[in-house]
Amino acid sequence: MLELAIGIILGCCALGAGCAMIAGIGPGIGEGNAVAAACEAIGRQPESKGDVTSTMLMGCAVAETTGLYALVIAILLIFVAPNILVDILLKAVGK
Amino acid sequence: MILPIAIGALLKILFVPAAEGVEITGAYIFFEIPLPFGGLPITETQVNQWLVMLSLFFLCLYLTHGLKEIPDRKRQHLAEWIVETTEKLVKGNMGEYFADFTPFIGAVLGLSAFSSLLSLTGLFPPTSDLNVTAGWAILVFFLITYYKMKCGPVRYLKSFAEPVPFLAPLNVISEFATPVSMAFRHYGNILSGTVISVLLATALGGLSRLLLGWLPGFLGEIPLFRVGLPAVFSVYFDIFSGCLQAFIFAMLTMLYVAGGFPVEEYMKRQKLKASKKKQIKTLEVI
After folding, report:
1. Count of CB atoms within 10 A of residue A10's CB?
2. Chain B partners of A64 at a C-beta cutoff of 8 Å?
3. Across the interface, do B192 and A71 touch by the CB < 8 Å criterion?
4. How many beta-carbon contacts under 8 Å exist across A and B?
5. Could you give the CA distance from residue B74 to residue A85 in angstroms, rounded to a whole number?
6. Which residues in chain B are closer than 8 Å to A57, comparing Cβ atoms?
7. Is the peptide bond before B216 cis (omega within 30 degrees of 0)?
8. A64 close to B (CB below 8 A)
9. First to last CA, chain B
10. What is the pLDDT of residue A15?
């Protein structure tokens, strides 16, 4: 029974991590749009390439934030949460 | 310059146990200093951060050693180029008033970039520990708040009630979200690079074992696919990502500090104060 409970904890942590990384879709689309717009701008005004590139990188990094939040949550779920949850379970069972 | 990094490598070889297979752990704790309010752990992060700072210090000493009015050495050209570029960056993004910020921004850029690039030597990069980036972000948060308060605390408190007083809680949250997002952005990027590198190396090792494992003797043991290929990814995940994150951290610091400071109003207040002082002085003279 205990093995089953621990198995459920581990499996659900992995599932949760996978679900959290769905958030990777948003930054992908957003950064794609930003880069497309930057390419257009450079095509129209090739002389402003330096400014456009640095601004684009900056914007991309800011847009990436939500994806990174999801990444941090996923990493916590995989590497940190199982140990804590199993400890709680073992304490509750009394072992 | 290289000596501190060599010391770090030696410490790692001597104390940190070797990883087996896929193992992604946090910073290794060397020892703990017992204190009345709980122990103070000395981790790999702190040691490596100090080593990076030492090597940067020696690099600066080397670059600025024997400066001349007419530069005749490459390193003086390099040092001048670094200072001028940083100055231009700061003045371009923050305005003339913040020209004194150049050393700070330069330090943030250099420390962050070199901390991230430390992973190239195989050591634990300090920036992939949340404590380090959170410390920097908190420092930046205090700077932002200081410059926002320069026009008086009343104006600072009033700024929360804009555009409608009803939105004040959201403004408070967004105020605290700034340092949190800065810390998580830097930390997450460097850490994800490390994690992906480890996973990739393991996967390539497994692939070569699968495809070449039937070879007799030690030939089957050689992880052929691991040679060279991870280095290509490391160019993006370690070098590009590390330098880009350093640049972005410095850029965001500049934008937030300069954006939170109402220069024109501050100048007006200073002028008002100066004119009042003058009036008082003239009255005293009379």
Report:
1. 15
2. 185, 189
3. yes
4. 30
5. 58
6. 244, 247-248
7. no
8. yes
9. 65
10. 94
Cα nearest neighbour of A70 on chain B: B188
Beta-carbon contacts of B29 under 8 Å, excluding residues fewer than 6 positions away, are B41, B42, B43, B44
Q: Are residues B185 and A71, on separate chains, in Cβ contact within 8 Å? A: no
Domain A2-93 listed as CATH 3.30.465.10:
no
| Domain segments of chain A as ranges | 2-93
What's the mean per-residue pLDDT of chain B? Answer: 84
Series of mean pLDDT values for 10-residue runs along chain A (95 residues): 90 93 91 93 91 86 85 87 90 83
**Lowest-pLDDT range, A26-30, A88-92, B7-11, B62-66?**
B7-11
Q: Answer yes or no: do B191 and A58 touch at CB < 8 A.
A: no
Taking the Cβ of residue B85 and every Cβ of chain A, the question of whether any pair is shorter than 8 Å is answered with no
pLDDT band at residue B47 using 50, 70 and 90 as cut-offs: confident
Residue B256 has a CB neighbour count (10 Å cut-off) of: 19
pLDDT exceeds 80 at position B36: no
Interface predicted TM-score (ipTM): 0.73
Q: How many domains does chain B have?
A: 1
Residue B20 is predicted with a pLDDT of: 59
Contact B191, B131 (CB under 8 A): no
On chain B, the residues whose CB falls within 8 A of the CB of A72 are 184, 187-188
Chain A residue whose CA is closest to B245: A61
Could you tell me the residue range of the domain that residue B203 belongs to? 2-285
Which residue of A21, A65, A78, A83 to mutate against B (max B Cβ within 10 Å)?
Answer: A65
Q: How confident is the model at residue B19 (pLDDT cuts 50, 70, 90)?
A: low
Nearest CA in chain A to B192: A71
- Cα–Cα separations (whole angstroms), residue B84 to A33, B80, B92, B103, B192: 34, 6, 12, 11, 33
Give the span between the Cα atoms of B105 and B254, in whole angstroms: 8
- The answer to whether B61 touches B53, Cβ cutoff 8 Å, is no
- Looking at chain B, the whole-number percentage of residues with pLDDT higher than 70 is 95
Q: What is the mean pLDDT of residues B79-88?
A: 91
Contact B63, B78 (CB under 8 A): yes
